[in-house]
UniProtKB/TrEMBL annotation:
<keyword id="KW-0653">Protein transport</keyword>
<dbReference type="InterPro" id="IPR002033">
    <property type="entry name" value="TatC"/>
</dbReference>
<keyword id="KW-1133">Transmembrane helix</keyword>
<feature type="transmembrane region" description="Helical">
    <location>
        <begin position="95"/>
        <end position="114"/>
    </location>
</feature>
<protein>
    <recommendedName>
        <fullName>Sec-independent protein translocase protein TatC</fullName>
    </recommendedName>
</protein>
<comment type="subunit">
    <text>Forms a complex with TatA.</text>
</comment>
<keyword id="KW-0812">Transmembrane</keyword>
<comment type="similarity">
    <text>Belongs to the TatC family.</text>
</comment>
<feature type="transmembrane region" description="Helical">
    <location>
        <begin position="218"/>
        <end position="236"/>
    </location>
</feature>
<comment type="function">
    <text>Part of the twin-arginine translocation (Tat) system that transports large folded proteins containing a characteristic twin-arginine motif in their signal peptide across membranes.</text>
</comment>
<dbReference type="Pfam" id="PF00902">
    <property type="entry name" value="TatC"/>
</dbReference>
<keyword id="KW-1003">Cell membrane</keyword>
<keyword id="KW-0813">Transport</keyword>
<feature type="transmembrane region" description="Helical">
    <location>
        <begin position="21"/>
        <end position="39"/>
    </location>
</feature>
<feature type="transmembrane region" description="Helical">
    <location>
        <begin position="242"/>
        <end position="263"/>
    </location>
</feature>
<feature type="transmembrane region" description="Helical">
    <location>
        <begin position="188"/>
        <end position="209"/>
    </location>
</feature>
<keyword id="KW-0472">Membrane</keyword>
Length: 271
């Protein structure tokens, strides 16, 4: 049966399209999660748990940067005093399954974007539909950059902070595998989705829900929130906080720029 045009589709037709979008996306995540299973040993030992080791790339890079800036070993991380333990009978099984699903979601993200584009494209103009490849490529690129930022910056900063913070020498850090994996999932997904901000702002501006003036008006509040987040996930030193905050501020500025371009184009079309 030929697919109906947007004007011919009822509310139930839209729900049916949305249902199949979710079904196909879920299948893609599961398939990629199954593929991840065959690389699980490398995934857990060399990727997911790598930030728990002082030899992790970010820690080594920070130490080199500390020396170059003349701070000696002030931000060098040579020891992480904690252990990760499992306290539930099915704990490791649950973690294994959910981390495979997480990796499945990350790797299938471009396909999920493709499904989303197919769902919203009937509501767009013909010239906008031709930008499908650009939308999928740019959105996927931003998401993967966010995931990389979360993995190489946010996670090691968070691990270092909780490993070095102590209310008393009597207290020994013994983290559960659930809490560590939860931090990993939150860091990479939150960073990946935050880096989608320019795309979100693009569509919100197209819909008239956001203007560049609005974004600029609340710029100070955005900066404060970003600095607070950077201070929470990093050790108490200016260098680390700056490394986390700068990319987030750049993303926000790019979003304002995109909003300006879209807004000007809308004004020209309405003239």
């Amino acid at each position: 049966m030929a697919k109906k045009n947007l004007g011919e589709m009822s509310f139930l037709d839209h729900l049916e399209e949305l249902r199949w979008l979710l079904v196909r996306s879920t299948v893609a995540v599961i398939v990629m999660g199954i593929v991840t299973y065959f690389f699980s040993d490398y995934l857990f030992d060399e990727i997911i748990l790598a930030p728990t080791k002082p030899s992790f790339f970010t820690y080594v890079w920070f130490c080199d940067l500390s020396h170059q800036l003349g701070f000696a070993d002030s931000i060098c991380i040579t020891e992480l005093n904690f252990i990760i333990q499992n306290t539930e009978m099915e704990g490791q099984v649950n973690i294994f399954v959910w981390m495979c699903i997480l990796v499945g979601f990350i790797t299938s993200f471009p396909y999920i974007l493709y499904e989303i584009w197919k769902f919203i494209s009937p509501a767009l103009y013909e010239k906008e539909r031709k930008n499908a490849k650009l939308f999928i490529f740019s959105s996927s690129l931003l998401f993967f950059l966010g995931v990389i930022f979360g993995y190489f910056v946010v996670i090691p900063m968070s691990v270092n902070f909780v490993a070095t913070f102590s209310v008393s020498k009597v207290v020994v850090n013994q983290f559960t595998i659930e809490s560590y994996m939860g931090m990993v999932k939150t860091s990479v997904l939150a960073s990946g989705l935050f880096f989608e901000l320019p795309i979100i702002i693009y569509f919100l501006t197209k819909l008239g829900l956001v203007t560049p003036e609005f974004l600029r008006k609340y710029w100070k509040y955005a900066v404060v929130i970003i600095l607070i987040v950077a201070a929470i996930v990093t050790p108490p030193d200016v260098v680390s906080q700056t490394i986390v905050a700068i990319p987030m501020l750049i993303i926000y500025e790019i979003s304002i720029l995109i909003s300006k371009i879209v807004y000007k184009n809308k004004l020209k079309e309405n003239v």
